[in-house]
Amino acid sequence: MYARLRRFVAYLAILDLFATQAALVAGDWARRAVPLGQPLGSAGTLVNPGLYLIVALVYPAAFVALGVYDLRRETRPLGDAAGLARAVAVGTFVFAGVLYFTYRDVPRLLVVYFSVALLALLAACRLLIGLGLRLLNRRGRSLSRVLLAGTGEVATRVAAEIQARLGESVLILGCVDDDPGPLPAGMTLLGKLADVPGLVSRMSVDDVIVALPASQYLAVEALVYGLLALPVRVRLVPDYLRLVVVQSSVESLGGIPLIGLREPRISGLAWAVKRSFDLAATLALLALSWPLMVLIAAAIRLDSPGPVIFKQQRVGENGRLFWMYKFRTMCADAERRGPQLGFDEQGHPIYKWPNDMRVTRVGRWLRRTSLDEMPQFFNVLRGDMSLVGPRPEMRFLVERYDAWQRQRLAVPPGLTGWWQVNGRSDLPMHLNTQFDLYYIRNYSLWLDLRILWKTVWVVVRGQGAY
């Protein structure tokens, strides 16, 4: 299935390379033809031949770095409009920087015309290709024709993922099963497992995806051996999907495949980028905010007896315990009084109230402005937390988690997060977990930047802060 899609994406990358060259020609023509900026008279081409080489290097590199051609993304092979616009913007930024150090005489308007023409060309090409793929799919001639061996929960999930991620580039012909269960939406039952070889030949099947339960191992074995003589690719979906926590992996040990069911969501280069950004941004924030932190410490000391800093044990990445720091916002004996517990209309517990009598006068203002979180900068520097991530939860709450909620511990907790910009304390804990899982499964540096930007406005409005 992915073999043809990879070739398709390779052709798309080559088409994009030609589009960048054509856009540079169009930008050169537009700068001379459109009467904006300083008049150029009868000037010939404004583009040095070396610029074509720079464009041919910068933009493909930007597209690859931002995942435009990455089939593992949660988007279709043609990509998405936002991702394409983002890649063009980054490429243009780098291109403008290169021009500053090389060809300073290139008009700035030419770069603007070029980037607009490039985005328009790329969007037009993808629109036409998408329409072509849709037409081919309706005629049964998509890039890959898939037969699904199996029904029920696993097969339904596989079909949904194929349709969501690969769209019109893949056509699922139907399902086969000896003991059919619920069929995926829109699918038809084409026969039994013994009919698969005939269906492969008759329907020109490119890929057979086996999504049968582990209890049918012998049937899977017979099916795979029965397809050895046919020109079809066979892929097996292990019946362990319900056990996968956030992310899985496949490794090889002496030729033996090892399936990881609980893998770190952020690792390798992604972890290095996130950690570097955390350190740089946190050090900058500390350099700017330390006078305010001194004033807050003095206000807390004058307002009520007790320590300035409140520390509490929280649960971090993979369940590791750490001490989280905050400015004290409650009376000194608040923990001895215990939390004021309650329940919402659905019976879910509520641990944070807007009118908690234990909160001090200064503490109420600190909570409203979220300034009580500032000491957590030191948790970020120590590596206990990140600037963006799930809420660092208290131990007694984690002990009450359902099994699915523990998936939120797969990444480091954050000073802010997706749930904070979508309701904060106005949301009950079980909904907070769903927002955290959305963040974990869709993590990217771009998402972190979006959350940080939204956090500024949420804090200014005081939304859900108490």
Describe, in plain words, how this protein is organized in 3D.
This protein has 466 residues and is α/β, with parallel strands linked by helices. The chain folds into 3 domains: 2-138, no CATH class; 144-243, Rossmann fold, CATH 3.40.50; 268-461, no CATH class. Helices cover 48% and strands 13% of the residues. It has 14 helices and 14 strands. The chain has a 5-stranded parallel sheet, with helices on both faces. Strands 9-8-13 form a 3-stranded antiparallel sheet. Strand 8 and strand 9 form a beta hairpin. Helix 1 runs antiparallel to helix 4 and helix 3 (81-101) packs antiparallel against helix 4. The model has no long low-confidence stretch (mean pLDDT 81).
Low-pLDDT windows of residues: none
Number of E-type strands: 14
Rough outline? flat
Helical/strand content category: alpha/beta
What is the gyration radius calculated from CA atoms? 28 Å
Question: What is the typical, i.e. mean, pLDDT?
Answer: 81
Neighbour order of strands in the largest sheet: 3-2-1-4-5
Helicity level: 40-55%
How far apart lie the N and C ends? 52 Å
The ordered H/E elements are: HHHHEHEEHEHEEEHEEHEEHHEEHEHH
What about the largest sheet?
Answer: 5 strands, parallel
